[in-house]
TrEMBL record:
<keyword id="KW-0732">Signal</keyword>
<feature type="signal peptide">
    <location>
        <begin position="1"/>
        <end position="32"/>
    </location>
</feature>
<protein>
    <submittedName>
        <fullName>Excalibur calcium-binding domain protein</fullName>
    </submittedName>
</protein>
<feature type="domain" description="Excalibur calcium-binding">
    <location>
        <begin position="55"/>
        <end position="114"/>
    </location>
</feature>
<dbReference type="Pfam" id="PF05901">
    <property type="entry name" value="Excalibur"/>
</dbReference>
<dbReference type="InterPro" id="IPR008613">
    <property type="entry name" value="Excalibur_Ca-bd_domain"/>
</dbReference>
Length: 116
């Protein structure tokens, strides 16, 4: 039997939701089945912390943290006069960080504060 990835993910999410509901249920609930808190607590998933997106005042401030600037994901080359050039210093790849500092991408090539 072939199971798609999507079906597997849906089943996993259902297990997590059911386990979360069991963990939240009050202790005096009328259910006849005993709850096993050890197995439920092992399946809890902590939400991922959101990364802090910093907005820089200018390219000099950005270069202190990111030497080659910041590029949105999918950018492979630095475009100079319509031609693809290799990076002198590879930029950090982060779409969220690029979007926060988009004003510093003067040539609109997807890289803010690139060097070279």
């Amino acid at each position: 039997m072939k199971v798609s990835v999507r079906t597997g993910v849906q089943r996993t999410m259902m297990v997590v939701l059911v386990a979360g509901a069991l963990a939240i249920a009050p202790a005096g609930s009328a259910s006849a089945a005993p709850t096993h808190s050890a197995s439920v607590s092992a399946s809890r998933v902590a939400p991922a912390a959101k990364p802090v997106i910093k907005t820089f005042a200018n390219c000099t401030a950005m270069h202190k943290v990111y030497k080659g600037g910041v590029a949105k994901s999918g950018v492979k080359y630095n475009k100079v006069n319509g031609k693809n050039k290799a990076f002198k210093i590879k930029p950090a790849i982060s779409t969220a960080l690029y979007n926060a500092n988009k004003k510093m991408d003067r040539d609109k090539d997807g890289i803010a504060c690139e060097k070279g």
